[in-house]
Amino acid sequence: MTTHVQTQIPRRDPAQVMRLARLGSFHQSRLSFMRILTRRMVQENWSFSTPVFEIDAQGVGHAVLCAQTPTRVYALVAFAHDLPAEKRSDRVIADAWDCTFTLFDGMPSGADIARLRQNIPLQEAGRVTEKELSVSRANRSVRLWEHVVSRLAEGRQPDVQEIKDVGYLMRTTAVYGSGKLGAADRELLADRPEFVAPFQVEMLSVYLTRAFVRDLAQHLANLRGGARATCLAPDIARLLGVGNSTGLGMAPFLLNHPKLFNNWIAAREEALARVRSLPAATAAEVAVFRDVLARAIISADCWQSAHPIQVEKLAVLRADLDRLKAHVASADLSNDQPWQRLFTWAEQTLGVEAQECLASLMFEPYGALVDPLAAQMSDTDAADFYIEGTMRLDALRAVLDRCYGWAMDLDWEAAPNVARLWYVSEEKLEPRLGERFAEPLADYEQPLAPARDAVRLRKALDAWDANETVAAFLLKHPEHRHSVRRAQIVARAPYAEIRDNTIAFDLLPIDMLRCKLSFFGATHFDPRSDRWVRVCLFGNAPYPEELARMRADDWPYPPANGVLA
Amino acid sequence: MTYSLNEIEALCKRAARGVGLSWGIAEDAAKAVRWLASFDLPSVAPFAQVLALHDDMRDADFAPMSLTGPWSASAGRLCPLLSGAALSDCAQLREGETALVLSHVVYPVLLLPFAAQVATRLQQVVMLSWDDLAVMSDGQQIWLMDSKDQCGAEIAETVTFSHAERPASSGRKPQVRGSASAAVWAQLNDFAHRTYAPATEQSRLLGAGAGNSDND
């Protein structure tokens, strides 16, 4: 059911929102996929158990962690390995990992475990079935793993500063779902309420992985320390998320799923419009906002990166959040469209990064307004794929001029504007970014330059009568079929297309990665180059056994009086 | 061996591109094979055969010359993928007409997903017939009026597309997996492989942007 909410303030213009610099400054929010999952777990009172944990002192063995929903069981099957240090790599070209995982649909039998043991440790080289929902792997943090295990074995807690510096005991390097390697197709699961929102399978897999990793470290510390070993303090354990290294493999996703991407952005923009349109705010709502702002400042303070771009963005963000805090201390947030006034002030005063952070913070007091929008974030309309062949060419021209007008004046012959190209490497079948004029890659170019291709289409239409149909045009010009499909999607879905040049010499793929990861709910983005980024998933989240007691949905913001404050 | 439907679609799209079809046609063709495979009809194998034909021909010679009158190709044989995409595009144009005739269609079973797409959009049962066979679909299920063998015919002299009454019986429903022989899968992988750029040490380092250590 869709609730109609009156909004006086319109959604922001796609021309403003869909720029890479802004998309690359997004923050997690109530609409992040991790929070959608943990809210459901709490609301439905999921229960969790670990029926199998058979791992030896060398860290080799397997475990099964179960999540029980009101109607189903999902089991994370984890295989732990003894990985020689020289084999530990996060690159997709690695072929061995510290731990490998699959999320199993139901409770696996002994035969299932035996089958999975033959396949899951191999990752891409193995095969799974429709009983498996995801396949993933993780590597230990060399810095933190030994520190935590040895401290616990000695009967001491790990150093909080060390934990702050790294943020995770293990990092996943790929989480495959949606039919990859033979796993269940997303369509197979789409009618299960717990998987309606995007990436819920992957988020559940990572959530259970985080609990397993903590338990594994504790288990090995206990075996090593014997009676001397101590338990990891819950407040310190909660600081630990799951690290994630994300490279170019993820970047084209936003381009390859225009309608889905639109639905994510549209939900967020609708949430922002709803909050900005509120005529007044109660004292309790303002108190929630002030609380999460203070905690966002703590989070920004312990967000670390050595990458020059992020270092600069962080410096501006921290300064801007301080200005925001000072402004909020004296501003009247109770009447006269307080959020609209605050957001307008921010747009005139703060940088893009802080504006987007503020947007997320403004959602926090308004779960009832914002959270139902999560139901609109999937792409369930298969009909969007099919081309409307009866559309007249003058209508198609109008769409192109409206949605790609910004690209029409760009010089698409100039080398800097077409300096890059996207291709798939033979070695690992992963998307990569090449230099068009330095490498012989043009024959392998992927259709990931929608603006350039829309301009080409627009030019080709000049030779055609306005009354002709798209069907007649495409019969003679199949090379434009991809762009026509996109244009028709964008005509209906205004936030479907990034309004920047995705093959420019100065493209920063990390902007695309961060945008997607922010919707996952990741925090502390740490670019390691212009094309891969480290993040932390589920940092500060309650563990399975804590969910029912802690309930609060605002876990991405560290507690104001916690160990990080 | 069985595959997830997403695997089938992903490989078919790359394979179609590998033989030189446009990205847009490759997308429609892959979606079509996925749909057909879910009904356990000849799908991946005839698709590989059609791609092999494309390898030796210009696409324009294999496509309908015009959207009016009976559809035929300049080279004599019609590609079911190029014809199917055009059929899908014309969904609304066909409204009110009684039938469309296509001449000398290679592997006509591959037209079925596109016809089914028209059925979905028009909310109207459609029928494809060739030789002694008729197959109907409303987009969600199919009714096959002959054996599976005939359905995989290599070429049909005449294929007729028309509207039809909904059969009284319930039709065949889609499954969650598709199957393909190892040989056909390998052939599609060979076609798909042509879209992958050979790796060089330069691309290994620059393309994925590693360079600095990821092990810390």
Can you walk me through this structure?
Chain A has 565 residues and is an alpha+beta fold. In chain A, 42% of the residues lie in helices and 14% in strands. Chain A contains 23 helices and 11 strands. Chain A has helices spanning 14-17, 20-23, 33-43, 110-119, 142-153, 160-166, 186-189, 200-225, 234-237, 253-256, 258-276, 283-301, 308-330, 338-349, 352-363, 367-370, 393-403, 405-408, 450-461, 470-476, 481-492, 509-520, 544-550; strands spanning 47-55, 61-68, 73-80, 99-105, 132-140, 168-176, 241-246, 420-425, 431-435, 523-527, 533-537. In chain A, the strands form 2 sheets. A 9-stranded mixed sheet of chain A has the order 1-2-3-4-5-6-7-11-10, with helices on both faces. In chain A, strands 8-9 form a two-stranded antiparallel ribbon. In chain A, strand 8 and strand 9 form a beta hairpin. In chain A, helix 3 packs across helix 8 (200-225), helix 5 crosses helix 8 (200-225) and helix 17 packs across helix 21 (481-492). The longest helix of chain A has 26 residues, at 200-225. The radius of gyration of chain A is 24 Å and the shape is globular. The two termini of chain A are 41 Å apart. The relative contact order of chain A is 0.15. Chain B is built from 9 helices and 8 strands. In chain B, the strands form 2 sheets. In chain B, strands 2-6-3-4-5 form a 5-stranded antiparallel sheet. The longest helix of chain B has 16 residues, at 23-38. The radius of gyration of chain B is 19 Å and the shape is globular. Chain B starts with a strand and ends in an 8-residue tail after the last helix. The model of chain B has no long low-confidence stretch (mean pLDDT 89). The chains are: A alpha+beta (565), B alpha+beta (216). Strand 8 of chain A pairs parallel with strand 8 (196-197) of chain B, so a sheet runs across the interface.
